[in-house]
Amino acid sequence: MAPDSSNVLLTTFPEHRSRNVGDCLITDSTLSLIRSRVPQFDPVILFREESLDSLNDEVVRNIIAPGFSVSNGTYPNLFRLYADLQRMPAFFPIGCSLQHPSAGASVASDYSYDRHTLNFLRWIASEFGPLPCRDHLIVDILSRHGISAVYSGDMALYDEKKIGLPFQPPAAMNSVVFTIPHHERFVRQAAGVLNAIVACASQARRYVAFHSLPNSHSRRVAELALALGFEELHLYGSACNLDIYDDIDLHIGYRLHGHIAFLRRRKASVLLVEDFRSYGFSQTWGTSVGCFNAFGCGSISEDEALPAEIIRFVNQQFDEEFDDYRRVFDSIDSTHAAFVKPYFDDLASRLC
Question: pTM to 2 decimals?
């Protein structure tokens, strides 16, 4: 059966490029949130860079954009949309993101929009309501520029089969997965983290995971891990590939959606913050637990200090039965109840 052409979902998943599984998880999570309410929902799915100009205005009623970017140049560079925005039907951006290669408080406080992007985002918010954002820093940036915004969290956090379930902390680290950084400048630091994992979990089954297609620097990190007895996992592509995390006790790594994939499963995780996407997550009160500043390092001494700090944290969490993480899951549940559930209930009523 052909998809329902009255509904369009714009995906950030680059199937023809890196095949980043995190983007696929965002799309799949959003589809699950809708289909739990509208089981027959079967939209036309288009990559964000595809023009919508060829769509039939008399047919298309709704456009849903999980992970919609509110970065400078988002329209038309990241999301092509329509050449004439007046053609836009009902538009539902959700879990809005902001990309920047650096991190830190100054990136957020100094961020400014060019006139074109500012006018575009203000128009979107005025036409379709406050922009739901995946972290509080993005809400703050938009609000500072006079753009109405609200915190929604990342849609990948929400598995409604898990929402409200009690957190069961791991009793031991029998298995652990390390996710490879996006950026080449973290290779030396990553080597230190890998060695620290071996030192504290020598008997555990250890994995190194690719969340995107391998490139030169990710292969370098994987080779270091293999030499230390890690097993390789190629998880890019389908979000179903992440189901292997069901049977792994702990995540320690750089991939934001590796971290989120554990949290949505009601599992503990440690995130090394390497760019603004992860930084915003780490600065949001409900999701700050287990996040460590990786981007502020750079010297050999700083890179050597970080792994020890992470392992001390992990050991303390085992001693305390990961009690700090209960705040994370309480926050996920409360945001789901206060925003996500009402939002998707309303969206479902519009799709029926």
Answer: 0.96
